[in-house]
Amino acid sequence: MISVGVNPAYQVPELEYALNKVGVKALVMAESFRTRNYYNVLEELIPELSGSVPGKLKSSRVPSLKTVVIDCEERSYPGTFSMHDLLELPTEQQIRNIESMQTRICPDSGACMLLTSGTTGQPKVALLSHFGLVNNATQAARRNELDSKDHRVCVHVPLFHAFGLVF
């Protein structure tokens, strides 16, 4: 599994492009931010969502997407799993299978994809490796002497992009 950071400010056309560009199979998202309900945005893009069985979505506009998970506590949304549902799903055997797959991940394997800002055209996809992420974080910590004493770091940057993901 390779994670993909998606800008939460994307409008429907941008979201459609991004999800199709990376061939997303599952989308894990927050319920809302401020006044924006992300389920409503997704339902505008994928009208089939509300009538689908969770985990078996068939969308004409984003055909690779099968599963939507929403981090919500107060209510449930049609066609989706809640984060709580997701955590209750795996059997002990499925958990062991996942753990055994982890041993086959090598440092140069893809860890996540980032979408560029799209200032010169449509956003492009950059694949970051496990080694690259760990190395970048390690070097940033050393350069800023975060390994020499206790620190509190407050960094207000987008978590869906490179700096927020690594630092």
Write the layout of secondary structure elements.
Blueprint (H helix, E strand, L loop, with lengths): L2 E3 L6 H11 L3 E5 L1 E2 L2 E2 H8 L21 E5 L9 E2 H6 L3 H11 L7 E6 L9 E5 H14 L18 H5 L1
Parallel strand pairs: 1-7, 2-5, 5-6
Antiparallel strand pairs: 3-4, 7-8
Helix pairs in contact: 1-2
- Rg from Cα: 18 Å
Number of strands: 8
As residue ranges, the low-confidence spans are none
The coarse overall form would be globular
Fraction in helix: 25-40%
Share in β-strands:
15-25%
Q: What is the average of the pLDDT values? A: 89
Function: Acyl-CoA synthases catalyze the initial reaction in fatty acid metabolism, by forming a thioester with CoA. Has some preference toward medium-chain substrates. Plays a role in adipocyte differentiation.
Keywords: Ligase
InterPro entries: AMP-binding_CS, AMP-dep_synth/lig_dom
Family: Belongs to the ATP-dependent AMP-binding enzyme family.
